[in-house]
Every structure is written in C-alpha cells, then in structure tokens.
Design goal:
9-stranded mixed beta sheet, 8-stranded mixed beta sheet, globular
Length: 433
C-alpha cells in the first residue's frame, strides 16, 4: 500500500504541503540553514507551522517517509515514475526512458558538468513523482519545485532524498494520496499530453504495457522529446487547449489540475489559472529577467497591454518588474508577491517566527492563493455578501516568457486554514531587498 506519509511519524495521511525556507533568513545569529520547512497536512486544525524536522539531515520528515516507501519496496506490483526538468547528477544510462537516448557531458566540458546527464530544454518545467501499487489499488502524487531530486544510486541513509546544494532557495512540495490507481492514470495522461516532463528512473510492474489497462502509465514512463515550441509553431499546427482535470484524494478531497503544454503559448497564470478559477490571484513564482527569460509578451508588447490600477514597479539588478497584471479578458487581476514574512506563524514549540522573511529573489517556490472578493469590491449578486473560495494553488510554472513554450501545471484546492496561513505571510510592496 502506498500513501503520502506524515511528518513526525511515518503514518498514512491524505495529503501534505511543505514550504522550505531559503538559506540565511531569520534573526541574526539564528539564521536558517536552508533545510527548515513549514508543514501542513490533511485534517490539521492549526496553522501552517515550522516543523521540528529538517530536509536531508536524517531519516525523518514527510518527504523522506514518503519516498522511502519506494526505495525499500520489493513488491512486483509497485511502480513509480520520476520526472524533473533537471536530471539528478547520479543518473546512469539505464535511468533514461525508452524514447530518450542517454546523453552525458564529455570530459571536455566544464569541470562542473563532466560526466553529468544533459537536460532536454524543451520538456516541461515540472518536477515530481507518481507512484502506484496495483495490488492494493493505491497511489500518491508528489509535485515539487526542487531541481535534480530524487537522487538515484545513492545510499539513501546518507542522501535522505534532499541534497545540501538545494538549501539556497525556498521551495514548495505537495503530496497527495490518490483515490486509486485510476486517478494516477488520469494524472499521467495530463502529464504526458500537457506537461511533457523529463522522465527518468522509472519502475513499472510487468503487467503495465502499451495495450494494457494501464496504458497511460506506460506511455508516460516511455519519456518524450517535444519539439521547440514557438508562436510560429502554434500558427502552423494550432494552439493546444489546456487541461482542467478534477481528481480526488484517498479520503475524497477534490483537487483540480490546471495544465498547459508548450503548444498553448499564453501566460499560465494570467490567461489560464485566474480566469479558469474565476478569481483574482496573488502569486509567488521564480522571476528573473534575462535575455531569454523576460516578461511574457504578445504582439511584441508586454502582457497585458494595460496593467492594473494598483500596479507598481520594482527594480532588481537594474531591471524593472511590474507586479499587477490583468488577464486577457480584462476581468481578473494577478498580483505578484514580492516578500514572504513569517511573523504571524509559529514553530513546533509555539514560538512566533519573528524576523523570518525573504524576497521573491530568494524563492524558487511556485504558489498562488485567491484574493478575497471584498478586496476588489466583488459581491455575490444574490446575497450581496463578499465572494470568496479559499483557493490554494501549488504549481511548477514560473511567470517568464521562457516558460510559455514549456508545459506545466498547478494543483488547486480549497483549504481555508492553509489559505489563511499563506495569506498572512505574503507581502506586496515596492521595495526589494
């Protein structure tokens, strides 16, 4: 039986969420190491809080407990599919999927790359593990934002599934115990059709074949090499419609997977997530303006043509960032979070997390929450009461032009207490430190 596993003791839980802190935040003399994380799980009655565990520092915690099921399981009925837009450095030729030739950097490459696997930049910008047990009809889906994990061919009692090179930036994780293997197959189909992930290190039970009832899992595990998507590609071949999949957890909680391929070629947050959920959003994503990763554009202009009334500009390393955008229909608003501040949250001992704060420039997480309707003056026409669904979206897509041509998605669900915690820690201001 496979399931998401809890943080403190390895017991089954319906789902969990983790938000890893970046290295160097916190009060002077007690700065974070970059392995601490905030934790929240299904059924929790208290706010998001700092776990007593640390990532990669020992055989404990939700991530270790969950992944350890796979590496210690010898059942022929258990399978898994890992995917990450950056391969783990410990990859071997046998870890590449059937449809993707193994390629490694030569000894003539720069020293930091020698012998390491070569990533395929046209695959989706997504990271995770889909695991399943055919005998017990159980499965879980782990989606996260950390490059090059899980490591393969390592002593897991030393690696603990989280390397210290990943301490630098904040990251997010969500793991869901799925209703059944059929739910895993539905997710696999969306991953294959929309995300087109960079797959590696798969294990499939022998019964899973192309013409079996598990063909979606088989197809995903074969891997793929998508073309170089562009606006010219979509003009020639047509835009591929995004996916909107509702699936359930083991205990019946509804989740909504919104996903797009590189052949859709619009802004993921502004043109898909906000309009589909019919809410204004506040989003935290990795945003860096470089020659190849600039603000999304349409017809040679920044998206959208008209910024919102509450838009403001910040400057980071000499480049300007806008922080409020309208969707293409001019109906909903996207606010980009500029800071995270944990002063309203507590650690596992009940101490307030004062002076734990960081800028989005130190955050590799990708998440969003719906904005309360009353903040924009929106009401329910029938009851004249403020409209609000406590949407939480955990994603793998950043908001940069470079990612319009890559697949990815967001797992969205209604969870008021987690929404409240995230609402309390997000900040939108004009100063970047």
């Amino acid at each position: 039986m496979l399931s998401a596993k809890s943080d403190l003791i390895s017991k089954n839980v319906d789902w969990w969420f983790m938000y890893k802190l970046p290295k160097g935040c916190g009060p002077q003399g007690n700065e974070s190491l970059g392995c601490e994380y905030l934790y929240f799980q299904s059924g929790q009655k208290t706010a998001l809080s700092l776990s007593e565990n640390k990532l990669g520092r020992g055989p404990q915690g939700a991530l270790f407990n969950t992944l350890q099921q796979l590496f210690e399981n010898q059942s022929p009925n258990v399978g898994w599919i890992h995917y990450n837009d950056e391969y783990p450095a410990s990859m071997q030729s046998s870890d590449f999927p059937a449809n993707v030739p193994a390629k490694f950097y030569s000894q003539n490459a720069r020293a930091s790359d020698r012998g390491k696997p070569i990533d395929h930049g046209h695959n989706g910008h997504c990271k995770g593990t889909l695991a399943f047990d055919l005998e017990s009809d159980t499965a879980f889906w782990l989606s996260h934002s950390t490059p090059r994990i899980p490591g393969l061919h390592l002593d897991n009692e030393q690696a603990f599934f989280y390397p210290d090179y990943a301490d630098q930036y904040a990251q997010t994780f969500i793991c869901i115990s799925l209703e059944n293997v059929a739910a895993a197959q539905a997710i696999a189909n969306v991953l294959q059709e929309q995300h087109q992930p960079q797959v590696f290190g798969c294990q499939l039970p022998s019964i899973i074949k192309e013409d079996s009832q598990y063909s979606e899992l088989w197809q995903l595990a074969q891997g793929s090499l998508p073309p170089a998507y562009s606006e010219k590609y979509t003009e020639k071949h047509g835009k591929k419609a995004p996916a909107d999949l509702t699936f359930k957890s083991k205990e019946g909680k509804s989740f909504r997977l919104l996903a797009k391929s590189g052949a859709w070629f619009d802004d993921f947050w502004i043109d898909l997530v906000g309009p589909t959920l019919e809410v204004d959003l506040r989003i935290e994503t990795w945003r860096r303006l470089t020659k190849t990763a600039v603000l999304p554009t349409k017809d040679g202009k920044d998206i959208p043509d008209d910024y919102g009334k509450q838009d403001f500009i910040t400057t980071y390393k000499g480049r300007e960032y806008h922080h409020e955008f309208k969707d293409l229909g001019d109906k909903e608003i996207i606010d980009e979070i500029t800071h995270i501040d944990l002063q309203m949250l507590k650690d596992h001992k009940g101490n307030m997390l004062s002076d734990y704060h960081w800028s989005y420039t130190k955050d590799h997480a990708k998440w969003a929450i719906s904005e309360e309707g009353i903040e924009r003056g929106k009401t329910n026409n029938e009851t004249d009461t403020p409209t609000h669904i406590s949407w939480v979206c955990i994603a793998d897509m950043n908001r940069m032009t470079s990612q319009e041509k890559r697949g990815g998605g967001a797992i969205c669900f209604n969870e008021p207490l987690l929404w409240q915690s995230l609402n309390e820690i997000e900040r939108i201001s004009g100063k970047i430190t």
